[in-house]
Design brief:
Blueprint lengths: L8 H14 L4 H4 L10 H20 L19 H16 L20 H23 L7 H14 L21 H8 L9
Helix pairs in contact: 1-4, 1-5, 3-4, 3-5, 5-6, 6-7
GO molecular function, one term: metal ion binding
Protein name: TIGR03086 family protein
Pfam family, one: MDMPI_N
Length: about 200
């Protein structure tokens, strides 16, 4: 697939979004509810970081997350910034080893090995949508731009269906007139664009 996904800059943008929302979070912020109904901010960050490390493990064979990303404890063993930075740095390094013209690349998804653009796109989707979750939970501006959301939708529509109900993605929320690309993406992933705590 041509475009940003093919050059991994979509992953860089998603990682930047996740890093941005991790900065300056307080202990009170970490307890806030999120659009992921079962998880607070700390748990969403743990899930997002754990998922990045799951991609690292699939690509490199290195150790993956130390706890189940789908059952996050909510107790951080370091600052939010340190947690996120370690995970996205490892993810970026792992994807730097992936040949863009490879036929497939391993993934931690139930679908297994997939085209590189799709694995990178779905890894980016995970980071970016959870960055949006944290931003909404803490009253910050959305880190998702319409351009990024449009590119993420390509991966979302390819892979999300078998993953719904695992905590991160709920049933599609029906669209409304006037939805932009960000609203369309978050609705597709089971979130209301106007969500508030």
């Amino acid at each position: 697939m041509a475009g940003t996904i093919g050059t991994w800059t979509i992953l860089d943008a998603a990682h930047a979004a996740l890093r941005t929302v991790a900065v300056g979070l307080t202990a009170e912020d970490l307890e806030q509810p999120t659009p992921c109904e079962q998880w607070n901010v700390a748990q969403v960050l743990q899930h997002a970081a754990g998922d990045q490390l799951a991609y690292v493990a699939a690509i490199t064979g290195e150790d993956g997350p130390t706890e189940n990303p789908f059952a996050p404890s909510g107790t951080l063993d370091r600052s939010p910034v340190e947690l996120v930075d370690a995970a996205v740095s490892a993810s970026a390094a792992a994807f730097a080893t992936v040949a863009r013209d490879a036929e497939t690349v391993p993934s931690p998804l139930p679908q297994g090995a997939l085209a590189p653009w799709l694995v990178a796109g779905y890894c980016a989707l995970d980071a970016a949508v959870h960055a949006w979750d944290v931003a909404m939970a803490t009253g910050r501006p959305s880190p998702l731009t319409p351009e990024l959301a449009k590119e993420l939708m390509a991966a979302a529509t390819e892979l999300t269906e078998p993953l719904r109900g695992w905590g991160a993605y709920a049933a599609v929320v029906p669209g409304e007139t006037g939805d932009d690309e960000v609203a369309a993406l978050v609705r597709y992933l089971g979130r209301r664009p106007d969500w508030s705590a």
